[in-house]
Amino acid sequence: MRAAALCALFALTLPAQESRPSEDADLREALGEAGPSAIDFIRALESHLAKYPKSARLPELERGLVKAAIETKDDRRIILYGERVLAREPDDLPILERVARALLASGGKDPAERALKYARRLEEETRKFDQQKPPGPSNAAHWRDEIDLDLGTALALEARACGNLGRAKEAVELARRSFDAWPSAETAREAGRWLERSGQIEEAIRRYADAFTIPDAHARDADRAGDRARMGELYRNLKGSETGLGDLILEAYDRTAALLAARQWKLRQLDPNAQLTNPMEFTLTGLEGGKLALSSLKGKVLVLDFWATWCGPCRYQHPFYERVKKRFKDRADVVFLSINSDDDREGVPEFVAENRWDGKTIYYDDGLATALNVSSIPLAVLINKRGEVESRLGFIPDRFVEMLGGRIQQMLEEK
After folding, report:
1. Looking at the structure, do residues 257 and 284 belong to the same domain, yes or no?
2. Rounded CA Rg of the chain
3. CA–CA separation, 195 vs 123, rounded Å?
4. Is residue 273 assigned to a domain?
5. Is there a domain that residue 268 lies in?
6. What is the pLDDT of residues 215-272, one digit of tens each?
7. Is the domain of 181 the same as that of 293?
8. d(C-alpha 156, C-alpha 117), whole Å
9. 346 pLDDT tier (thresholds 50, 70, 90)
């Protein structure tokens, strides 16, 4: 979160019920002077806490300091304020991870022991989440992805902490479990590090090769260069030259590619739209359970109407949308789809019945809103016959019928 956004957050929460007016005024002034700089924001809050050490706002101020410290990559403050926040809120997963990383970066036995404690707590909390029900069918794959990422991260941090404490055998086992939970450059590298330290050089080389070859959007070029260098050095020391290393790297590429393909297949079993970005590749679930592959509608003009049961403007604009549908009711090459965006689908059928929307072709979002970057509703998204998003119309009731009808007509006339 940017410092300016943090400033806005505190401005919106003023005044606190238990804080003094003078403190509120001083905090407003300090935040106003801090500007967009995260460093100035930190200084302002620290000066405020020095003046009001028993502030009623202490929890939110220290949480703000953690966020700003993370933004500025200030490990000392991440540890200082993060541990204070975790003493009050021990199940905050992002802060657990960042505090553990900062402690490990600082070196030493005591920081490693504290990091291990937080990493284990991160693992425990993640496993608790894994026992819960995913928030809706369209989020099941994302839910699985996030849990596996957090679990892999927790185990990797546990491995590093154990290794730093001289427990190499335990570190190796944790690192292997980390890679199994979340195959990534970081988890493969962690396994390579502790396999190397425990004398298992050939296996360490393979793990460094995995880290070097695995597709990972979060891997930095510098990290890959380091993996290549370490892999090459270990291989030369073991074999006398790099002859045969290329074959080993190709094997690692095939192995990691197969791992990720298998993972993607599993996610698709939870959600057929998992990791898709092209809207025309989506399959939507109908209100009554049927499925619609948008690819089957390519060659037609699509009008996707995004709405939710809680959205007042959606209801207000609905009759205007229906007027446009009537205008094109005889055109087989124009398809209107009503897309419900409610996170909780339980009340949607009742809402549709009460509002007499039964005749509408209604489908659930199923992740399509994310792919189309739908940030506000109501929103009509128009897709041309080539399957490309061509236009968007928001809440404009006075001109909605004219504008939507006109844009559909233009798309129909395109060659």
Report:
1. no
2. 27
3. 22
4. no
5. no
6. 988 889 999 999 999 999 999 999 999 999 999 999 999 999 999 999 988 887 777 7
7. no
8. 13
9. confident
User: Which residue in 378, 214, 236 sits closest to 303, CA to CA?
Assistant: 378
Distance CA 284, CA 362 (A): 10
Q: Checking phi first, is residue 289 left (phi over 0); if not, alpha (psi -120 to 50) or beta?
A: left
Tell me the percentage of the chain whose pLDDT exceeds 90.
60
Q: 284: which strand partners?
A: 292
Residue 262 CB contacts under 8 Å (≥ 6 apart), including other chains: none
- Three-state DSSP at 306 gives strand
pTM value surpassing 0.85:
no
Tell me which amino acid residue 169 is. Answer: K
Q: Strand, helix or coil at 407?
A: helix
Q: Give the count of domains, the chain.
A: 2
Torsion, Cα of 60, 62, 68, 73 (10° steps): -150
Taking the CA atoms of 298, 283, 276 and 1 in sequence, report the sign of the dihedral they define: positive
Q: Which of 262, 296, 311 is the last residue of a domain?
A: 262
Distance CA 148, CA 126 (A): 9
pLDDT value at residue 4: 43
3-class DSSP state of 339:
strand
Question: Measured between alpha carbons, how far is 170 from 177 in angstroms, rounded to an integer?
Answer: 11
**pLDDT for the residue numbered 3:** 44
What does the alpha-carbon distance between residue 85 and residue 70 come to, in Å, rounded to a whole number?
A: 14
| CA–CA distance, 94 with 97 (Å, rounded to integer) | 5
